[in-house]
Specification:
It is built from 14 helices and 19 strands. By secondary structure, the chain is α/β, with parallel strands linked by helices. It is globular and about 90 Å long.
């Protein structure tokens, strides 16, 4: 009896373990090789001294070794997805978004990753979205130590624990890193990855006394001094300064020409008077249209300390420039521009300009002023008005999305245009080969008596035309040069515009200038009925068609 009492529990344990092993084997088999993809992403837990490329290469090697051991061959390149951007949320990770869409197709049976935390270190909402994507598409998560079937409650709970642990670690790491940054900045060090124009980044000292700072680049520093002199002493505007520097041979980094937005940003940078500024614009997250939107408004709680680096211009000249920036430029004699969207916003129904109208509440003593946007063709168009703040909110969202896209291209060492061009060539070449093979098969079919002469001639004429068109497209593609895009310049231009829209101290005229550097035009559509007495102060559905200067 004692033997039976002991034997039965042991037997049960063996059965459970055996079932688990068999299940894991079944999961591996379920994740057929041809339907398995690899996802790679650098994490904050990785060695900060290693580049993104180094980390991804190391992890790829580990995962390919696993693939060879499991399936006898490595995962091909076209099924390897690399996330090179730094993003806490799914919204900030385009490759992860792409994978989640692939899962929905049902063609992916497994995703091979180095650890669960690579999928998400975001909030609980993001973790839930990822878990459900795998759970309800019957896709397994494969890691070298363990395979997770998220349709299984045990695996799902274990997986959730891993993601939660990763999120806690992320928050802790961010706090530690931020403390170190603040301490370094208060000591006057420069912690940015890229030195501002006019400087180069240098390392001073050794061991514990080692720190990063800036040293002057003579040629670039000369351009900075000219820039401030032209603006303060010679009354040059941003555009004229840009033209002057271009003609004088002073070139910006990573761009062929200077932009007014870049000039504007540099004229407001305290780095040139030997100071280091940190956290001037804090990132604020808020929900808008069901999405997390980030803004970076100015605030007074920021760090500004004397830096270890030399100044390029005097404080007197810098603050003279700041005083001048506070002046409101005139667009017409004796008339100030009050509408930042002037010359940009048009009615999508009739094509007339959308003007700014200000209304003061005279029924109360508050003097509350409401700003609306109204089509100038009211006698015929009757497009409903809308609050100015709602228009600007959508414009800012579009600008931020463009900045995010530019940063993705930069962080990925983007050569998308070249890749796109090559893909077009490859696809056309493949199409041409298929058409030529089809032509051979048709001739063979005619010779074998499958097609009549009349049917063959009809089919052959159509196929010959397809071959000719494809060949012409291929020839044109081979001769076409891929476009080269300067994303860094675009980021500066769009970010300056976005920052200006968030700053109440920037005049409408300056905002208008910066907006026109980023946007060609905006079309306003509102199909809701315009009725007397409503619509002016009421939120109403509308859409914008924003044509960005990309």
């Amino acid at each position: 009896m004692q033997v039976g009492v002991i034997f039965i529990p042991i037997f049960r344990v063996v059965l459970v373990q055996l079932a688990y092993i068999l299940q894991k084997g079944w999961l591996v088999n379920m994740a057929e090789f041809d339907n398995v993809i690899i996802y790679l992403r650098k994490s904050r837990s990785d060695d900060p001294m290693q580049t993104v490329e180094d980390v991804l290469a190391k992890h790829e090697s580990i995962l390919q070794d696993y693939s060879i051991k499991q399936w006898g061959k490595p995962i091909p390149e076209n099924r390897i997805f690399r996330e090179v951007v730094s993003g806490e949320t799914i919204q900030d990770r385009p490759v992860m978004q792409q994978i989640m869409k692939l899962l929905e197709t049902g063609f992916i049976s497994g995703v091979l990753i180095i650890e669960p935390q690579r999928l998400s270190r975001g909030d609980l909402q993001d973790c839930g979205r990822i878990i459900n994507s795998f759970r309800y598409t019957n896709t397994v998560v494969i890691t070298p130590p363990k395979i997770y079937n998220l349709a299984d409650e045990y695996d799902r709970k274990f997986f959730e624990m891993e993601l939660t642990r990763g999120n806690d670690y992320l928050e802790y790491t961010k706090k530690i890193l931020n403390r170190g940054r603040i301490a370094s900045i208060k000591a006057g060090n420069y912690i940015g990855n890229i030195a501002p124009y006019g400087y180069r980044k240098v390392v001073i000292g050794t061991g514990k006394d080692k720190y990063h700072t800036l040293d002057i680049e003579p040629k670039e520093a000369e351009a900075v001094r000219i820039m401030f002199d032209l603006y303060v002493n010679k009354d040059y505007g941003f555009t004229n300064i840009a033209h002057f520097l271009d003609n004088a041979g002073y070139k910006p980094r990573n761009s062929a020409n200077w932009s007014p937005a870049a000039i504007s940003s540099m004229l407001n940078n305290e780095i040139y008077i030997g100071r280091v500024v940190w956290n001037r614009r804090q990132t604020v997250k808020k929900m808008q249209d069901g999405m997390i939107v980030r803004t970076r408004p100015r605030h007074n709680d920021y760090i500004s300390v004397p830096g270890r680096h030399p100044a390029i211009i005097s404080e007197e000249l810098f603050y003279a420039a700041k005083r001048k920036r506070g002046m409101t430029p005139k667009v017409k004699k004796f008339k100030e521009l009050t509408n930042p969207l002037a010359g940009l916003l048009f009615c999508g129904r009739c094509g007339f300009a959308i003007s700014m109208k200000k209304y003061t509440d005279k029924r109360s003593n508050t003097g509350h002023e409401t700003i609306t946007m109204l089509c100038n063709n009211q006698s015929n168009c009757h497009t409903k008005s809308v609050m100015y703040s709602l228009i600007i909110a959508k414009v800012k969202l579009s600008l931020q999305q463009a900045i995010n896209d530019f940063e993705v291209h930069i962080n990925s060492n983007d050569d998308s245009e070249q890749i796109l061009q090559q893909n077009i060539i490859n696809n056309l070449t493949e199409d041409l080969e298929h058409l030529k093979e089809k032509d051979i098969r048709q001739k063979d079919a005619y010779e074998d008596g499958i097609y009549s002469k009349e049917e063959f001639l009809k089919r052959n004429a159509k196929l010959t035309e397809q071959i000719s068109i494809t060949q012409e497209k291929l020839n044109n593609a081979l001769l076409e040069e891929p476009r080269v895009c300067d994303y860094e310049e675009k980021i500066v231009r769009f970010r300056d515009c976005l920052n200006a829209l968030d700053d109440d101290n920037v005049s409408a005229a300056v905002k208008n200038t910066l907006l026109k550097a980023c946007i060609d035009k905006i079309l306003y559509y509102n199909d809701s009925p315009s009725l007397p007495g409503i619509g002016r102060y009421v939120d109403n559905p509308f859409r914008l068609e924003i044509f960005l200067k990309l």
